Amino acid sequence: MQKILTLLNPELAHNLTINILSKTGASPLSFFYRQSAEFSPVEVMGLQFRNRVGLAAGFDKNGEAIDAFEAMGFGFVEVGTVTPKAQHGNTKPRLFRLKKSKAVINRLGFNNKGVDNLVSNLKARKSKIPVGVNIGKNKSTPIEHAQKDYIFCMEKVYEHASYITINISSPNTKNLRSMQSGALLDDLLGSLKEKQQSLTNSEGRYVPLVLKIAPDLTKEEVGLIAEALLNYEFDGVVATNTTVDRSSIMHEKNAYQEGGLSGAPLCQKSTEVITLLYEYLGDKVPIIGVGGITSVIDGKQKLEAGARLLQLYTGFIYEGLPLIKDLAKIK
Ligand SMILES: Cc1cc2nc3c(=O)[nH]c(=O)nc-3n(C[C@H](O)[C@H](O)[C@H](O)COP(=O)(O)O)c2cc1C
């Protein structure tokens, strides 16, 4: 099945996969991809995970197939990025495979069906594994008003999320990554933390807040982000999103495509960010390690660098179900 899918146009293959999974996840047909992954429970951010291996954001943007990913053995799923209003994203083609490098370049631009649609899918899920909701801003919202979009999405998803990830690191939304520093970062983290407090009181439940960062930051920038995470008592950090760096794939036909590069060529770079973050954060703020994990060795390196949980996207496309099972076995 995986082989057939790689013969199709990448975005078509992806949509077809999500479509099939959304229809079969909670049915006996899930037998075709159901597997029992190792039960190696961990507690992170006050949440219980049956194993450390999660599906990274962007694969199930609308939260349509959570039950199917639970059946595959994932310990948790991060859905989104979702924005207040539905949006189409950038013009096609916008997703490219780089097979020899086990990599992908995407410039999707937060195509999603909007936060209300996501909430109804979250309500309908049967799965009991933790579900993080990754939130972003609409393309039409100017960066100075981005905070409003994050607060809007946070209020909508709070009741239905195990944790909420603030995505300010996608390279495919203009100026988004400028929120990773200075007053924009301070204002955003401060207001989200305030909102978390008021929602904790009104909903009677504390939902951890996590920041997702880019791999293309200088050491100083990573240090300042770590300081802000500590100052604002953020609950976690996802490191990392895709990279705009092409230095390791210049031999590839698609290297010149604009967008974020993910998969094997990103692995070392994202592990370096985790190492640096851990130097600043220690065990105070848990790190979710993501970027180029295509083997058990890659997963172990991220855990040794300081990650408490792992996420997969591109490695899952190329390696399929066995990768989840193999990573879940790491003690
Ligand atoms: C096609 C595609 C779409 C993605 N969409 C999102 C997204 O909507 N939000 C997000 O935070 N990350 C998104 N990502 C980034 C992944 O969650 C992950 O951080 C990145 O791909 C690195 O992991 P990987 O090398 O295992 O793919 C996307 C990645 C890909 C390949």
If you had to describe this structure to a student in words, what would you say it looks like?
The protein has 331 residues and is an alpha/beta fold. The protein has a single domain (21-87, 113-240, 267-328), classed as Aldolase class I (TIM Barrel, Alpha-Beta Barrel). Helices cover 37% and strands 17% of the residues. It contains eleven helices and 13 strands. It has helices at 2-5, 10-24, 66-71, 115-124, 146-157, 182-203, 219-231, 267-281, 296-305, 314-319, 321-328; strands at residues 42-44, 47-49, 53-55, 76-82, 95-98, 103-106, 131-135, 163-167, 209-213, 236-239, 260-263, 287-290, 307-312. Strands 3-4-7-8-9-10-12-13 form an eight-stranded parallel beta barrel, surrounded by five helices. It has a three-stranded antiparallel beta sheet with strand order 5-6-11, with no helix packed on it. It has a two-stranded antiparallel ribbon with strand order 1-2. The longest helix has 22 residues, at 182-203. The mean pLDDT is 94. The structure holds flavin mononucleotide. Flavin mononucleotide binds at residues 56-58, 61, 81, 95, 104, 106, 108, 110, 134, 167, 170, 212, 241-242, 262-263, 266, 290-293, 312-315.
